Description:
Blueprint: H1 11-23, H2 27-37, E1 43-46, H3 48-54, E2 62-66, H4 70-80, E3 83-85, E4 93-98, E5 101-107, E6 112-113, E7 120-121, H5 128-133, E8 143-146, E9 150-152, H6 157-163, E10 165-166, H7 172-178, H8 181-193, E11 196-197, H9 199-208, H10 217-228, H11 233-242, H12 246-249, H13 251-254, H14 269-282, H15 296-304, H16 309-312, E12 314-315, E13 321-322, H17 326-340, H18 345-357, H19 371-381, H20 385-394, H21 401-425, H22 436-443, H23 449-465, H24 470-483
Helix pairs in contact: 1-3, 7-9, 8-10, 8-11, 14-15, 14-20, 15-18, 15-20, 17-18, 19-21, 23-24
Amino acid sequence: MSNRETPNLTIEQLRRIATHQLSQLPPVVHELGEVFADVGHELALVGGPVRDLFLAQPTHDLDFATSAHPDQTEELLASWADHSWAIGKEFGTIGARKGDVIVEVTTYRSDEYDPNSRKPVVQFGDTLEGDLTRRDFTVNAMAVRLPAGEFVDPCGGMEDLSEMLLHTPIAPERSFDDDPLRIMRAARFAAQLGFDVEEETMKAMTELAPRLAIVSPERIQAELVRLITSTWPRRGLELMVYTDVADYVLPELSGLRATQDEHNRHKDVYEHTLTVLDQAMELETGPDGPVPAPDFVLRFAAIMHDIGKPATRRFEPGGQVSFHHHEVVGAKMTRKRMRELRFDKQTTKDVARLVELHLRFHGYGEQAWTDSAVRRYVTDAGPLLERLHRLTRADCTTRNRRKANRLAAAYDDLERRIAELAEAEELAKIRPDLTGNEIMEILDIPPSREVGQAYSFLLAERMEHGPLGKEEATVRLLAWWKDR
């Protein structure tokens, strides 16, 4: 897997960091601990927020566990908060807001699972330690009792955090069998935290991967998006492929290994794809740039851009290998996979379009494009142009420095021409020189299919020859109308 940059810290260093971070939490957090303690109930900050305290990362969600039952929690939060809600009460969770701070408080649980569903049969527990043991990974099974600030770590989470290791609190086979989505969460946390996965846990991921069939596509999609927009998505994807999880979630990615060629007639498409992802991420911009990081559409297009190659690989005479029209096949496969994962229509359309267009640039360096071809490139890309620039550049993974420099120079030239044309004619707003109403007036026809045909003709003329002006456009329109 790819190298991580997060340094290992000792347990003592982690404790010092967490103690400092705890003191920086909003005062109302400690105040809430007092509210529960005053009536004899325990309250503890739990899960991801505690892990983030140790890692000195921002804590966005404030999740608490308590010995109080939901009715009692609801009453206590109502007395403390500006506003509270009980949408998750059947699962023991009550939410509240005080000022800008939003909290969720859940009664200790000791759930049991139906083998045909990942939804637990909710059972309330008696102890914080028991509640922590039911969680997904040891690094998420730590707590801080409030208001005392006592760290609670029954499963060795701090040790695993120090070793940058993902490990389940109970036997991984049982944990993943209870809730198969935890398999995806293992891959996601590997990408998000830069951690390794303990060997037995990895084996259980492989063994239990078929259980992902009982998880809704929407939940799998959510984990996949979080993985891909993490700091180290390559780590998560490599883990999914290594453990065969990708076979059930993103089989097109693991399928790229089928193009590995022991005779070295073409590059390793799987490794190439992961490199393209890395390089595309490097081309993302800051928040004020055209493609702010992390950009899911660009990253997923990088992952999917060559998935059509296994289906289109052909061995040609002379030992050459071809992948004709793999971009078209890949775009169709991308749409199909994203629909199955319940992605929204616009995101699906954008990613598939980038896959379809990712080869359009090739050949520019060998044969000069007309202004018309440049206009069509921009028009076909539409609002995806900046992403297409980055995907095309990232797609160059050759070790031949001369070839890489030649391709970069060619794309520099294309971007220069796009900028010049855009400045001259506001390329992104290309329209025919005549409106639909003007076409109907000139041809003396009502709204009809012919108006659309005339509009398309004038748009093609505009693309081919640049701005014509209304007079010249009228002459060409009348000539077209006469000859049609």
